[in-house]
Amino acid sequence: MSKKTRQSQRAKKINPHMKIVDESTRKYVINARIDQLESDYYDSPNRLAEDIESEEFEMELEEHENEKRDQKLHTKKQKKAAQKIKKKKISKRTKKESSMRRNFNLKKLIKEDDLEHNEFPNFCSIRLRIIGKYGLKNKKEVWRVQLVLAKLRKAARELLTLDPKDPKRLFEGSALMRRMFRFGLLNEGENKLDYILGLTINKLMERRLQTVVFKSQLAKSIHHARVIIRHKHIKVGKNLVDIPSFMVRVDSEKHIDRINEDKVGRTKRRKQK
């Protein structure tokens, strides 16, 4: 048998997988195959109804999923809005607490009589009043004194928690009190650790070299005293001191004096010419 006869015989058989050259037979084969598949699929009478029900169920599922998605988005938006409100409230609270904490600490360290709270009710203005009164450069110098004072108070508080006959309290307490007397922060009559808790910023500020120079009338003003110290015109005993925040001891307070200026100044030299 030739190849053509074989092909014609195969074409007579309805086989959709075989390549057919004639276009009419090809369409016929495809339609026949579709009818066969439909008849196989819908052989049971309930199959069509099941398909319709399944489609409806799928539609309901899609609607339900869409509703869920919308609810989730809505809840997410609500959560985000609530979180923003919480953050704002927390930030406001923390700001208030921090300012209250700072002001409370400052209130402990400053006496009301010294700074007249009626005229300056704001604690920021109290710091500025301290800066102006003692001729400080900035608030950093106030914070530095506050830190020293806080450390002294902490040491005294820890020693007060111990037993009065404890050797640690006796040894360290006496050393701490000697230091207070040496720097003139306490009088010799105030020989108790409780008096350290009553110290204020003003006590420490009074013992700075700048204030001592001004009060001993070596300078015209508190600011002039700072300038003199920075220009190296002040000596404490035999030592030249150019630090305005230098803590003056009671013994060395008598020996603060101006350095003898042997060199002629710039303006005097001009006048001599």
Automatic annotation (TrEMBL):
* Key word rRNA-binding present: yes
Q: Name one Pfam family in it.
A: S4
Q: Which GO terms describe its biological process?
A: ribosomal small subunit biogenesis; translation
Give an example GO cellular component term for this record.
cytosolic small ribosomal subunit
Gene Ontology MF annotations: rRNA binding; structural constituent of ribosome
Q: Which UniProt keywords apply?
A: Ribonucleoprotein, Ribosomal protein, RNA-binding, rRNA-binding
Specify the Small ribosomal subunit protein uS4 N-terminal domain's residue ranges: 86-206
Mind telling me which CDD domains this protein's record contains? S4 (cd00165)
Put simply, this protein is called Uncharacterized protein
